[in-house]
Design a protein that fits this description.
- The protein is mostly helical.
- Helices cover 72% and strands 0% of the residues.
- The longest helix is centred in the N-terminal third of the chain and has 34 residues, at 74-107.
- It starts with a helix and ends in a 5-residue tail after the last helix.
Amino acid sequence: MKIRRGLKTCLLLLMTLPVWVPVWMLVSGSFMGTAEVYKNVGPVLDKASGMAVWQVFPEFPILRPFVELLLDSPDFFKMFWNSCIQVFPVLLGQVCIAVPAAWAFARFRFKGKKVLYVLYILLMVLPFQVTMVSSYLVLDRLNLTETHLALIIPNIFSAFPVFIMEKFFRAVPVSLIEAAKLDGSGEFYIFIKVGVPIGAPGILSIVILGFLEYWNAIEQPLTFLVRRKDLWPLPLYLPEITAGKAGVAFAAAVIMMTPAVLLFLYGQKYLEQGIAASGLKE
């Protein structure tokens, strides 16, 4: 039994290597000097002769890339702040709009419900490249292009959070709702006191998934903020770093992924509860 468990563990570790190796290269590269990084990946970055290699640990670990990034790169802080401005209002707006919309789809019957829900699904399935031109024309007509609102408003009304939360609210036991109605509770009170607590894992799920998506967004900022580099978010900072500052690029990537990793680790238990809640029965 122990041998079989050990073999399974080794197999799982081998399967995770393709995921963890790039992450480890990123972290270790952030502690390398420019010369060491160039020596390892110079043939890739600058078409130098020889083969690219990578050491497991830095030969001479230093903090200079982080110091240069945090103390001598004001553009980094500006783009970091831009990312916060563009991401957190979206998450708050989705909670305020998508959650009540999902409750309505899950608990109410009204004319045209199925057609409207199918439209939501279609909007969720369509990639950004398909709706890019029409979205740009609408935002340009509203004079919202080249502003933070060009990214905030469309994402607030994303269909994906509604789709996720509708599944959670559909699993709310009818007996709880009927008991609340017998106590004289109104629909809004039932939504706040019954729906939201039971759907809390789902709400945390859409917040985490939304943060991961919008924190790393590239195509939308490039489309709607093409002429306003001062409004660009953090993901567009990395391509601007030259090959001579590869260590700074590694450090910037580490700092950029840290909030997402911490949020995922914090919300992992809520994601697990969300999966269990989706199978809730009366």
